[in-house]
Amino acid sequence: IVIHGIGYIIMYCPIVFQWATVRLERGAKENNHPLYKPYSNAIIAKEPTSLEEEIKEIRRSGSNKDLDSASEFEMSDIFYFARRGVESIMDDEVTKRFSAEELESWNLLTRSNYNFQYISLRLTVLWGLGLLIRYGLLLPLRYMIKNLLSEKVHLMCYRICVRALTAIITYHDSENKPKNGGICVANHTSPIDVIILASDGCYAMVGQIHGGLMGVIQRSMVKACPHVWFERSEVKDRHLVAKRLSDHVDDKTKLPILIFPEGTCINNTSVMMFKKGSFEIGTTVYPVAIKYDPRFGDAFWNSSKFGMVNYLLRMMSSWAIVCSVWYLPPMSREEGEDAVHFANRVKAAIARQGGLVDLLWDGGLKRDKVKDTFKEEQQKLYSKMLVGTQEDRSRS
Amino acid sequence: MGSRASSLLREEEIEEIKKETGFSHSQITRLYSRFTSLDKGENGTLSREDFQRIPELAINPLGDRIINAFFPEGEDQVNFRGFMRTLAHFRPVEDNEKNKNAAVSEPLNSRTNKLLFAFRLYDLDRDDKISREELLQVLRMMVGVNISDEQLGSIADRTIQEADTNGDNSISFNEFMKVLEKVDVEQKMSIRFLH
Fold first, then answer.
1. Is B143 exposed, middle or buried (0-12, 13-18, 19+ CB in 10 A)?
2. Residues B190, B109 contacting (CB under 8 angstroms)
3. Residue among A73, A75, A81 minimizing CB distance to B61
């Protein structure tokens, strides 16, 4: 019954938030203070012209000469690279994806709002009330529930965790749920992803053996279900990892493996290892897309900035976690397709379903290699502009 | 995210930056947000590594030269003021600015200062001259491995020949400006803001 009550509260939350935002904005206008709206779109206008077009244009404006007999190199060519470079410093597609999605509507969580000001008394009271409810009611409620579950069955465990976080999850297309002997691949935003998926099905986890809190949790999980854990040293050996994984999937009685091929992890090197590896194993992949509704609580965990406990506390004291899970139809590596290509195909499918932007540069799939090739491409393009004219000259 | 509150930009600072660079209030706050998102160490300054982490900049053939432009001689960290001062070079030139009192020191985004930014990209040792060697090095960065040394050498020689008026076999800033006097620098070295 309590859960239902909380459910109702959550339904009405967006309305409250919107109202609060409107009041805040009105108050800001009255004080003639420009209210900073966290980014809703790009800062600068980027010209979509190509290298060749732009450099030709720069040269054209600089000389009276006919373009056919234009010299091979102009000192003004550098303007193109300079401007492009500074544009990317001001605003680039990748880095902004990795900062938490900033919210347009102030959701009473101070953390999300940079311009928090006490505009009106009513607003203050509302904020205070919200704070009270959050810390006074929901947090202890969750702790109570958590203490009870130490001996429960695996699935029940996770389901209650989910309720403790007051998560509202919608599962779509459950007919595509991962079957035994397969690998489940999902995009990764937070450790809660694990809880969300595990509460809807039993999986074998793959991961590194951690010390501390995580270690305790891992050991207890192993008792319930057979998982595949690695020592830190073993992680370095890609072949060992791949072998262990394929052994597990070959055994059809074993549960499907849950892998997050991208995204942050406590130790970033281990993520890199699994990435290509999981797609090289010749078995069916069940992609899963997880998308969080950012209006209710920021599930994103910037592991380079916050520790686990800090994160958990934040999560527990947020209003709720609302997300959707889509089980996508299974995919297999096609004839002649290499692991990287397959990985990209799966990634694209997940991104499309979850409405996430499919970036070429995520997490780090051979990041450095990709960078060099792109740079070389630009250099090649530019060289053609210089050398091309030279060949014409020698001909005439 | 909670720790960012401690480094919020104060109103006085915003005003100072506004005066110095000409950026608007909202542009400054947005660029501040950008600055803090690049500042992984959260110490209020950016290092060269922080810039190199930007993928689009890393693939720019002149990426390192551009990054260098942010750091004054001998320094490895740049604070928000310095960051804005360098970015200010790429502000578009507004018409009403051209009429502003000439007594005020030249704005950072003037034509001359834009050209100076570009000049400094070539001038590797900051001696206010572009030598043949420096030009070769920068050219090499731009073309990669696709052009032979001889070809590149002749391109450099030709360029210096055309620009050098005082016969010292290198290009001074004035000579540089003369070569580019017809180029629409204001437009080509400007970045348009959406707000």
1. buried
2. yes
3. A81
User: For the segment A27-81, what is each residue's pLDDT rounded down to a tens digit?
Assistant: 555 554 444 333 445 677 777 677 777 888 888 777 655 554 455 788 999 999 9
Calculate how close chain A gets to B103, using CA atoms only, in Å. Answer: 29
The alpha-carbon gap from B148 to the nearest alpha carbon of chain A, in Å, equals 10
DSSP class per residue in chain B:
-GGGGGGPPPHHHHHHHHHHH---HHHHHHHHHHHHHH-TT-SSEE-HHHHHT-HHHHTSTTHHHHHHTTSPTT---EEHHHHHHHHGGGSPPPHHHHTS-TTSPPPTTSHHHHHHHHHHHH-TT-SSEE-HHHHHHHHHHHHTTSS-HHHHHHHHHHHHHHH-SSSSSSEEHHHHHHHTTTS-HHHHT---B--
Among B63, B61, B62, B60, CA closest to B49? B63
Q: What is the dihedral of CA A240, A245, A248, A254, to 10 degrees?
A: 150
- All residues of chain A having their beta carbon less than 8 Å from the beta carbon of residue B25 are 34
Write down the ipTM of this complex.
0.90
Residue with tokens 């500042």: B39
Work out the pLDDT band at A118, boundaries 50, 70, 90: very low
Inter-chain touch A92–B57, beta carbons under 8 Å: yes
Give A10's contacts (C-beta < 8 A, 6+ positions apart). A166, A168, A296, A319, A320, A322
Q: Which tokens sit at A244?
A: 């262990």
What's the pTM? 0.53
Do residues A92 and B64 touch, judged by C-beta distance below 8 A?
no
Report the gap between the CA of A314 and the closest CA in chain B (Å). Answer: 11
Say what the pLDDT of residue A43 is: 74
Q: How confident is the model over A302-351, as pLDDT tens digits?
A: 444 455 555 555 555 554 556 677 788 888 877 777 777 777 777 777 76
Q: Which of B117, B143, B183 sits opposite A379 (nearest CB)?
A: B143
What does the alpha-carbon distance between residue B131 and residue B135 come to, in Å, rounded to a whole number?
Answer: 6
Contact flag A94-B54 (C-beta cutoff 8 Å) = yes
- Other beta carbons within 10 Å of A58: 23
Structure tokens at A14: 């967006």
Closest chain A residue to B35, measured at CA: A90
Contact A44 B54 (CB under 8 A): no
Binary contact (A75, B151; C-beta < 8 A): no
CA distance A143 to A160: 11
CB contact under 8 A, A82 and B118: yes
Average pLDDT value for residue range A282-299: 65
Question: Looking at per-residue confidence, does A52 or B77 come out higher?
Answer: B77
Q: Which residues contact B141 (CB under 8 A, 6 or more apart)?
A: B61, B62, B64, B65
